[in-house]
Input
Amino acid sequence: MKNPFEEFRGQSTRSKGKELPLDRILKAKEETLNQILKGYENLLKNEAKDLVWLMQYSTVIKAYSIAEEAIKGINYAAEDVEEFCYVLDKTDQVPYLITGPAGVYISALCNNAQEEEIVLRLQDVGIKINLLGYRLPEGKRLIIEGNVGDFTGISLEGGELIIEGSAKNYTGAGMKKGRIIVKQNVGFNTGHGMTGGEILVGGRIKGLGKVVGGKIYEKGQLIFPSDDYRPYYF
Amino acid sequence: MVLRNGYQERVRRIYRFISENFYLNRPDLEVKGEKYNSALLFGILTALYGGKELIIGEPGLGKTTSAEYISCLIYGIPLGVIWGSEVSGHPEQTEEKIVGRPDLGALNQGKEVVVWSNFVQLPVKIVDEINRLPETKQSMILDGVDRGNWEYLNEMIINDEYALFATANYQDRGTNTIIAPLVDRFDVMVESRHPGPNLAFYIGRRSRFDNPLRHQEFEERYHKLLRSQIPYKEKLQGLEELSEVFRDYLKEKVGIESLSKEERFSIRKEMAQMPLDLDANAFLRMVLAELSFCHRYGQKRSVEGCPEGCHYTGYLCYHVKNCASNRLPISVIGYSQALAWFLEDDEVDLEHVRTVLPFTLAHRIQWRDSYISKKEGEGRNDPLQIYLAKEATEEIFHRYTEQRDYLLDALAIASRAFEGEAVEPLDGDHPIYEEIKKEIASLR
Amino acid sequence: MRKVWPKVRRNHLFPQIPPPQLVESDEEVALEIKSKQMTINVNYLQVLTEKMNPEDALQALLDHGISHYMYCPWDFNTHLMLYSEAKKVLRDKRLAQKAASYFMDVVANTYCVKERETKIPELYRHLPKEGIQRILALLYQVIWGIDLGAQGEEESIKRLSRIPYLEKRLWKESIKKFAKTLEEFLQKEMESEQKSSKKAQNPLGEHSIENYTLEEIDKGLRDFASSVDDITEFRETVEDLKDELAAMGYTVGGMGRGAGNPIDADLLYYMKLAENYTLPIKKLPMEKSGALHPHSHSPWEVGKPVQDIDPWTSFGKIMPGLTQTWVRREGEVFGEMEKIPDCLIIIDSSGSMTNPRERLSYAVLGAACACNAYLKNGKKVAVYNFSDAFRGNKLILDFCKEKESIYWAICRYFGGGTAIDLNDVMYLLKQAEKPDIFIITDMQITNLEKLIDFFNSIENRVTAVHIGENIYATRFREGLKQKNNVSLFLVKDKEDIPKIVLGKVREYFTSPF
Output
């Protein structure tokens, strides 16, 4: 039987066009992202059985240590973290999107990144990620452009967290030291269990939590500690 | 490598001569940086290649005229003889008027002797308003031209070369449709357009009487020979001798060198040897895939509609109702080779195929209403059928440019797989990859 | 040019664009593209040829121009998409235009460098590197791996180099990242333009609406209308380009009719969207005339009747194989012209219906489809748009063929209560001969009973499309179930409205009036 593809026999299976440095950059980016995604999946497998994750002090700590373990050995940059946030928005790539573990994982990535200052441009990301800035250490500066979810900057450990948009509830809860700047509004229970550090809110604070120590400013005015808000003792 | 023996230059001179003197019209086609009138260009290619051309257009816009002059100059037959051999389309046409009739004198003596019509004897055939013929007569003509055989009363003549030009007006009172199986037999369809008011005025001013392509004496000699009862083979020789004399007359009178039979055969041989480059080859396969593929039912069938929600709705297979016939690639390749030869190119490339494809496709595709209704309101210079075919060609071309390297790789791997190598065919979104897989799977 | 152009064409698989023209100009621009026609500035080319081979320079310019046509943006729809996405990030028309333009340049150049043998890198080595051009040169250095003699801006370039420029399906996200990263540089360029009152020139030409023909613009708008998420995105983009569209002669009423009414982006949106749901123009039907006439011959066989034998074509012989008999057929004549009536569209624009100027209203789209179908067949359309008609919240448009007026009437939104004044409907019905009626509503009409009685009393073909199931819809169905000329469609999925309407229109067009 005659080979209907005969004329193409001599064609070598060459790769498409020339290889440019752009191809190598994108390939490396893809590989890093896959590693990060794999780490995230691993975290979910361990922590979010049946896709349920309870927001509790102990689960957050455990999730964080698993996340740190997962990202060990991955060579990534701040842009890779941002890329991961974008990918989270497209749920066809990420198997399961659960904002709690996702936020913990991103926090682990930020805290362990090589750069001292990380900028995450999340204005176009549809979801508001929780638990960003968790345990941000001293010497690190995390700038988030866009809005964030609940429990932002909780247990801050001396780092500087700047939110260019708004945050939701429990912002800065349990923070020990460091600084959180939110350019727009925050929700309820702000600074709940906070023992030190500063929270500066450029817009409105819907409500404070049971704040123990530190300082909280609203539109430049110190509102904690003040006559209206005194330290809480657990 | 194309043989540069001067034939192309002679044919181009014929083109220029007709376009400047007889078929005045505007160029509407550009290929390799040169502009041509599509009706005239494809007419010349049809005459050279020996194809079948359907010429559509409004009444009185030169459909038949273009075919007549081309036939005259390419085949070296006086115009009056061409006129005398035309079949005109009307419902009362009979086989006796088209093919041949019994010799009445001989018949009265009990002998069956066929008087063949000029139409079947001459190599070039013109049918005017073919869509006014009943279907049985259309079929009879197309069968005859397809095979080159004409039978009547148990006698047969065999044409060793033939080309058919058929004209058709648009659908109006008194016309039949040319049914799909018949229209598929035409290689190309072109439109003979209005030349514009300025050229039309110029046409109106020309003299009706002084036509250099007519020669009473030659025409009489031709008719005498055609009427004679000598065997057809001898007749052909005689016709060629007369043609040679007429060609000399043309050269002297108008400076045009027509082509002899030997030269035409030689040209056809050259055309057939013209290779296709890989892009033209791959692109055509892509076109055929889109026009014949059906993911759900195996292939396109005009009786099976395309279901909603099919993965391939972005391709032409979703927009067409019927399946591309095997005549399509024959026409495309044949005319592409002819065009490449005409332009003195070394091989058929993508530009030749893209130029030819819409004209070979226009009459063969039945579009879905949804596709027609989207496009029919768009601004265009072509009649709707040709416009849709051009749009389809560009659509597939765009896809080809995006997937070119990958497709060439896929075809190379397919070639190796076909020869027994343990390689897997490449996956891809386009129907062509599915079809390649089917070919390979059928072997394993 | 004669030597280079055929080579470049072949390299790019023979694009169907006219040969470029050479002009002499003092502008600091080497290449311009207007409606597919490329123009090379000979003066600028001469400057370049002082530093590089003239053929190479010309080839690079042509490669760049052709790859815009063949790859990015390819069509006006892509151009609009890139502009629209850039605007979401940058929030400024001029900035978004610049960002889209530079993005297209990067994509086209990178495509050429990767897929074709090109001298574009060589060209960029000799082009001026000021402002954004410097940033792009830096970017090219990284992604192409060549030295163009530029330095700096590592952070921004790092971000820019991670964008997958050659992944077409990701252009929507890529342009946003590109625009965001380039924002500060674009701002600087704008400020410097304002200070110096001189526009920054892109030596390889600007990308604007002038690059396209009117047909391409029309097609692009249609594709863009189907691809956007909602009407506001379409409106914003078209409003931004209103002046340029008008300057090109593009109006809502049609192309090339000179200066028409200012473009109403919302109307244009529904017009373009409705073009995706169309019916072909109804062909003139052929009818049998009822009289037989001799049509053609067929061979006579022994046993067939002899009265239809044609003695002339039979040569006076009765002999099988020779004798021909007439086949008689009924003649065909053209059918009646007035087979399709006019159309009355009754559309509910009360508060419970979607405001078509805020979000995509499938009710309006369905009405637009019906309108298009009737207008295409040369018929007239009237519109009765009602909310609380007795309070004056109604719009009556008499039967006409002006598409713009009809669309304006359909898109009008009152947002009040829902009551239909049947006197208005009766007035309109008198203006035409038994028009077809399309009524699109959620049936929450206060005088529903009167409407039911009214429909029971008329013989016009009525198609009622009601959105959502409720007691009113049930009552409407009950009240009209005996009427054959009334078709009721309950729509759960609003996206089905256009298809339902078109289905009924097709049925009306093919059945006798």
